[in-house]
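Dear support,

I submitted the protein below through the web form. The confirmation email said the job was done, but the results page showed an empty box. After a refresh the structure appeared. I'm attaching both so you can tell me whether what I see now is the final result or a partial one.
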Amino acid sequence: MTDWELHGMEFGNCNCSYGCPCQFNALPTTGYCQAIGFFKIDSGHFAGARLDGLNMAIAVAWPGAVHEGRGTLQPIIDERADAAQQQGMLSILTGKDTDPMATFWAVYTAMCEKVLEPVYTRISIDLDMPGRKATCRAEGVADGRGEPIRNPVTGEEHRPSW
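What the results page shows now:
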């Protein structure tokens, strides 16, 4: 197995209501699942290839719940990556070179009957962790945006109190 490690930030979004029901023993809100995940690599490597400062993403779709399978996965890789970096990110995004089901990428890939050829494009990821906001884009492929839940009456951002 190839030695690899990543440190960075992730933003994920799906078509369901708040909380992603598939992760909490419920069926998708609309009966099917479509999701995008963006990954900003602060530091990392795949074998001898440094992945620092690169981005990657996946777009996935299932006709029902994730655990029912029959999905399609689209790997999206930073166009700035060289051949070794591209291969490393593709291996990570498709669950290769890891123990079975050890990463969510491996789980998602296992639940997909189709893994499409990767798309190489510009990926921008703007994350504001204190503000709980994100704007992400894989040019020509997918966009993702997130912000705090708002109170339907006052419009104020809802923040959990600990």
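Response: this is the final, complete result; the empty box was a page-load delay. The chain has a mean pLDDT of 94.
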